[in-house]
Request: fold
Amino acid sequence: MNLASASPIKTKTLTTCSLCGLTTLHPLLNDNGDVFCCPSCREVAALLAESPVVEQNQAQVPERSEEVILTLGGMWCSSCAWLVSENLKRTKGVVSAEVSFIQQQANITFDSSITNHQSLKKRVRTLGYQATLPNEKPRDEEESFFTRLLIGGVMVLHDMIVGGGIYVRELMGWATPETAWLVHFFQIMMLVSSLPVLILLGLPILRAGFASLLRGQPNIHTLIMIGTFSAFGLSVRNLILGHGGLYFDTATMLIFLVSIGRWLEMQAHKSSNKAVSRLLKQIPDQAMVVTNGQDSVVNVAELKPGMRVRVRPGERFPVDGLIAIGEGDVDESLLTGEPMPVTRHEGDKVQAGTINLDGSFEVIATAVGASTTAGQIGRLLHEALWARSPLERMVDKLSAWMTPLALALAAIAFLIWYSIGGLETGMLVALSVLLIACPCALGLATPLTLWLSLERAAESGVILRSTSALERLAKVERIFFDKTGTLSQLPMKVLEIKEERGKKKEFLEVVASVENESEHPLAKAIVEYAKAQNIELVKPISFKVLPALGIVGQLPVTNYQSPIHIGSARLMSAEGLSMSTEISQQAEAWKVAGRIVVYAGWEGQVTGILALGETIRAEAKETVLQLQSRGFELCVLTGDEASAGARWQKALGIPVSAGLSPDEKMKRLSENSAMVGDGINDGPARSGLQ
Reply:
């Protein structure tokens, strides 16, 4: 044989995926010639190319630049954040400074050859705010504020009692020259007790008002600052001169009431943050990253788009992504509100926080961390907690022109009364104008009412995307309900059983015994129903999950030696189990009615089926009746089939529009209407409150 003339042996070479880094014998190419190991990697790469990550422009950043994130405290409003930001930007060595009032953080880039972490921290603290470095434990601002509020409350109570006694003395005609020294002593005591209130509670208001003036946008804090500190200054002057009215109690009480409003804001923010945190906690802290060698466990914060993540049965997906390998049922109720698990295959999208029920997946990450659907929802809800409502913005606009108007009127009053009664009279009248012009009720009632409403809503499990929803809610005339999880009750319940051999109890015993080994929500519903019927369960001698199809098991019972298959119609067909016409027709009827059908069979045939569905909430009918009695027009919007919608319409007694997608639900909304739903898929409709 002539070896030289023999055909060369073709060998496959290993190539590396340009996205996830895994080797592949069957590479796929895109139009640019990039190599990928699977269609999902190629599709993810295309998605990332459409929205590339914007990298920071380093051209103007010094070579010795560093970044630090300071945790801030003591910021009263967005004006405080602006004040901190502007001062940091004007600090020598600082390249950029972004201060978030929502996150209570300052992200600073600086030249390490000019300044350092500690200097920046001291810079913020000189403004009167707290600042802590990443390696330091931040002070509990809520606890600190509550302590200051308690001290201020005691001092305010002292001023009110003493001031009340002095006023009663004057009104009742008990004033005598012999007791004047005692009155003067108590007036000095009022001055002493008002100082802690101004220092502990008044300085934040002073900073907020001053920051607003610097911005050229005076607001409520500006007016409260001018009114309270003018009253205090006038009182000190009159106390020194020995004549004129004292307003220590007025100034301290106003500051105390505003501080109570701030405390309620903090409580509402805390309650709402807990609700948002519960959502974000659904995203795992760690993930299993697939590599060429051994799989490694990493923190979710270290994940990047394009990485390949392994998700085992029972685990939550840590990223949004596309399935590269695997098939199984996924519980997406966290995001959609729908109780029925959905089957996901290769190439399908999955989202962070949802639960892998029975499959084993490898997922190519398209979004991680805050970029995931759940992360974006959490961020939007968090930002909404501090979003100002139209009413609050209107109040700020009102304050913006009221402040210069009040100052102008005070100046005019001073000039007029100075020419009539002298300097003292002019000052008294001018300061009186300032005090009267201070919209105390407006400044207190507006944010207080809105934040109390937010807190009450959060305690009831309702997160408002913005305080403006409260104002629009008062104009609502029509209310649309989502059905699943809103008017219906979860989890799913067994509603009916159809058994071929007339032995319903034995059928349920067999099915529930096998399902007792499964973690699937439908399996749990069947087991719960069997236990309610006082049926004793038998432990299977074998059990296996068939992803996206169902389960197969075997019982140590003489009458049931063959494998028992429970799951979908596809499983019955795949295992060659025959199905009677009666069973098939009943299953179709249940499906048309919007119920979930679970098939069970052994010994070559489908033995029976179970219908699972939602039940009406106990309080649903009463709620509907109450809303109707108040004159609201009600309607249910659902994605169920028309026949299921008709059944729910009969049960609830209100119109039901069935077969609707989230976009179609949105289109049904009209002016002065509201949408009520529990799933995040209803978010667009709920935000469409008009």
